[in-house]
Write a structure and sequence with these properties.
heterodimer; A: alpha/beta; 4-stranded parallel sheet; B: 4-stranded antiparallel sheet; globular
Chain lengths: 133, 91
């Protein structure tokens, strides 16, 4: 089973949008969950919602979590703690840029790469250039 | 080794969804698959099974690429990738 992905963002629409773009890369073979915003639709991140998303994206090969901004990392760390021993060790928090990282990770996961490989390539997405000088 | 020279006809080139489809297709074969962008830099080679590597080639609409496969299923790999490119990535 491919590595699962979770997109954490301060806005639900942002998380859903990144998920939509990344899913298009996979041919439907990778589980990608979005956890954005807080209850009531306000901006923020919700550890419980993130924990549910991680559990839903879980696969024997692990889960890579991509986040938008700093405090999303804190909420995700809380979520991983909430999940307890069951998932710890196969959840990796990525420092990759959100959109590039999600797209690259989605492709890597779809071709059956390991969690380590998917995580490494997502980080390498930092080097991608889009404006040619 | 089996190879093919192909011209990329789809508007966005080898980026985004077409690049992902190309990588997924290449990765479904055992053979090593390498790509060059003959239009931009014929000396530089990318791994067709790596999305990041492939995107560094900057393959745009109208560029000519060289695909080389080496391994037990190289002919099938080239035939399938050729079909993918010639069908404009099934768009």
């Amino acid at each position: 089973m491919p590595v699962g992905l979770v997109i954490v963002a301060h806005s639900q629409r942002l998380a859903e949008g990144v998920r939509e773009v990344a899913l298009q890369m996979t041919g439907g073979s990778v589980t990608i969950e979005a956890a954005g915003g807080v209850a009531g639709g306000a901006l923020g991140t919700d550890a419980e919602a993130i924990a549910r998303a991680i559990a839903a994206a879980d696969s024997p090969d692990g889960v890579l979590v991509l986040m938008d901004l700093g405090s999303a990392v804190l909420s995700t760390e809380m979520a991983v703690e909430m999940l307890g021993d069951r998932l710890q060790g196969r959840v990796v928090l990525s420092d990759a840029p959100l959109v590039e990282g999600a797209v690259v990770a989605a492709v890597e996961a779809s071709i059956g790469r390991s969690l380590d490989e998917v995580a490494r390539t997502a980080l390498d997405a930092r080097q991608m250039t889009k404006v040619k000088r | 080794m089996t190879e093919a020279r192909l011209t990329i006809a789809n508007p966005v080139g080898l980026h985004a969804r077409p690049a992902a489809l190309f990588v997924r297709t290449a990765a479904s074969f055992q053979s090593a698959v390498r790509v060059r962008n003959l239009t931009r830099d014929p000396e530089r080679e990318a791994d067709a099974k790596s999305i990041l590597s492939l995107m560094t080639l900057g393959v745009e609409h109208g560029h000519e690429i060289l695909i080389r496969a080496d391994g037990p299923d190289e002919e099938a790999a080239i035939a399938t990738l050729r079909e993918l490119v010639e069908s404009n990535f099934r768009e």
